[in-house]
Amino acid sequence: MPTSLGRTTTDAAARYAKQFASHFGRKIPVEETPEGGHRLSFQASEVVLTPADDHLRISVTSPDTTTLTAIQNVVTSHLERFGRRNELTVTWDEPTDG
Description:
This protein is of the alpha+beta class. 31% of the residues lie in helices and 35% in strands. It is built from two helices and seven strands, in the order E-H-E-E-E-E-H-E-E.
């Protein structure tokens, strides 16, 4: 299954992860991870948000690259909208077949 890693530089990573998880938690299953992040289940795809001191790490795993790209776009648009005031941007690595 293809996997992609994303990252956004911010000193409020935990807040953005929680806001994203709360927003989608009304629609899809969300669980906290032992690292203080959140795992979201988008049908056949999984998104894991892991906050660090200076960035938010995002992992997306999907059954195919088309779905992976669609989920990346959802994650990017929501996080960048939540962080518009702070000019938050998400960058993605090239997908790997994990």
